[in-house]
Amino acid sequence: MLRTLAPSRPIAPALAWLALGLLIFGACLVGIFARPIGFLSAFWPANALLLGLLVRYPHLARPPAWAAAAVGYVAADLVTGSAWGMALWLNAANLLGATAGWLVLRGLDERIRRLQRTVSALYLLLAALVASTVGALAGCGAAPVYFNAPWTDLLSLWFSTELMNYMLIVPVVLAAPRADDPPQATQGGLQGMSLLWRAAPISSLLLAEGIRTVIGGPGMLAFVVPGLLWCALSYSAFTASLLSLVVCLWTMAGVATGVLNFTPAHAGDVFSLRVGVTLLALGPLAVACASAARAEALRRLDHAVRHDDLTGVLARRALLKQGARLLASHQHESAGAAVLMLDVDHFKQVNDQHGHGAGDQLLIGIAQAMARELRPQDLLGRLGGEEFAAVLPEVSPAEAHAMAERLRSAVEQQPFATAPGGQGPTQRATVSIGLVHSATMGGNADMDTLLLAADAALYRAKAEGRNRVALA
Ligand SMILES: Nc1nc2c(ncn2[C@@H]2O[C@H](COP(=O)(O)OP(=O)(O)OP(=O)(O)O)[C@@H](O)[C@H]2O)c(=O)[nH]1
Q: Which parts of the sequence belong to the GGDEF domain (predicted)?
């Protein structure tokens, strides 16, 4: 069935930029207030959020977005008591880092940016490395000026913090569900399984968390890997990256607060821990991207198998199968269902006069014209050649007749293009329709019986002069 998606109305850019500025302001406050947990703002979500949002919504990536983000950054520092000079320097470095990451990702194919390609995880790692390096290099000079510390300390701290935040947060932003996602875009083959089985991957993760809390030590970092991989194979890329974010942040917070029994001895251990945690998330992310790529390929394949490649309506087998299912599910409805067979009149002449290309355009145009007249619950398919069929559930015989007439008249009244893209001279066409209602066949006739009856009625419609509806 042809369906047109109503495009979601985009938010006015000015509002979106304002929201971005507020979001960055809030994210900076979260980072600033998270500092007491340890490791000097190990959780600094603002830069990763900015990078993720600019990549996800390319139409926002204009100068006002940077201006709004800059105001958000500086305002957060100023309201929490930082000096102007330090706020300007550090936040210029934040902006530079996020911009460098955005430059790496912005030109990539949309499916790579949506984490639907196997290489997506590697591009993300590259962008995170570039963004953290640029940010760290730009910011580290502030260490001797404002913190009385060597610039190398801030360089390693900044780089490792940023790498972790970019690798954990950007995937969540990029893979978050969108209004235009096709149904069943989530992968994992969990559809139709019991709730218990669906919850098994996340339960294994919780179990691993419990075990590593008891055992502790440096090896505890990797205890969660099997659970994360299982989640990546089972859930959507969004859910998997969200779980990685939670697990890795919990690891850092657990180490900082002493809940996890591993105490870094010196600054080098902290650097190593952060980079290790980041790379821990890379494996499940790569698996989630590969899994999403496979799910997308399967969805496209399934769509190609079930739809006619010329007109986009259901292919014969899919129509017969879905039609049979629809009829069975509506067998006990009081109104009943109708089956229509529709055949383009004198279609051979179109091919002979204008060529097969024009004939193809006519078939596409007629399919679209008829689909527009049908309800969302109706099915429309191409049986082959210039012959279509429709299944209309829950209609009375009178309503079915009226709908068949509407279809006939819609085709008759519309001029159709002879060349792709509405080009070339227009052509006119008509269809003959055979209609059968389940009530006239005893109420519980199957798809084959109804099609046969509709076909006989169609034959009559042709014999009686075409461009008409005949009832079985
Ligand atoms: N362009 C195009 N032509 C097709 C396609 N499939 C079948 N045809 C042509 O459709 C024509 C069908 O011709 P006929 O069965 O004689 O029917 P008709 O000319 O529509 O005449 P009536 O049905 O009796 O009104 C044939 O010439 C086929 O070659 C297709 O996918 N594209």
A: 335-472
